[in-house]
Amino acid sequence: MTDSSAEPTALNPDPAEAIRAEIASKYASKLAKANLVTEATRVGIRIPDAYLEYLDYPQIHNGTGELLPEALEYILDAYAHHKHPKRSRTVEPQEPRLSLDARHRR
Fold it and tell me: pLDDT value at position 16?
């Protein structure tokens, strides 16, 4: 006897997998854009919105939305001078304000 349970799965692919693949290919460019913005933010670089809209995303990702490492490095190097300034998280002491209210004057 032969195992006939293996043959039907090869002939009838899972429709859910086909739908997942279609959705992944449809939204891969949007995912690539989100990944690019995330990586740029992670290293402290701001990429202008006009440049993000200008990019041809199908050429810089692998089909699933993952950016090609060479493309990511090239883009981040091009905008390395757009780094966010470091903000001081410490609060500088302020001199006490003089109150115009007589009840709070010393």
Answer: 85
97 within domain boundaries: no
Which own/partner pairs from 27-30 qualify as long-range (CB within 8 Å, at least 24 positions apart)? Answer: 27/65, 28/57, 28/58, 28/61, 28/63, 28/64, 28/65, 29/57, 29/58, 29/61, 29/65, 30/65
Domain annotation covers residue 54: yes
Residue 82: closest CA among 42, 38, 45: 45
The amino acid present at 31, given as its one-letter code, is L
Q: Is residue 33 part of a domain?
A: yes
Determine the Cα–Cα distance for residues 103 and 60; give it in Å rounded to an integer: 67
Q: Tell whether the model's pLDDT for residue 72 goes beyond 60.
A: yes
pLDDT in tens, 73-100: 998 888 887 665 565 566 666 676 777 7
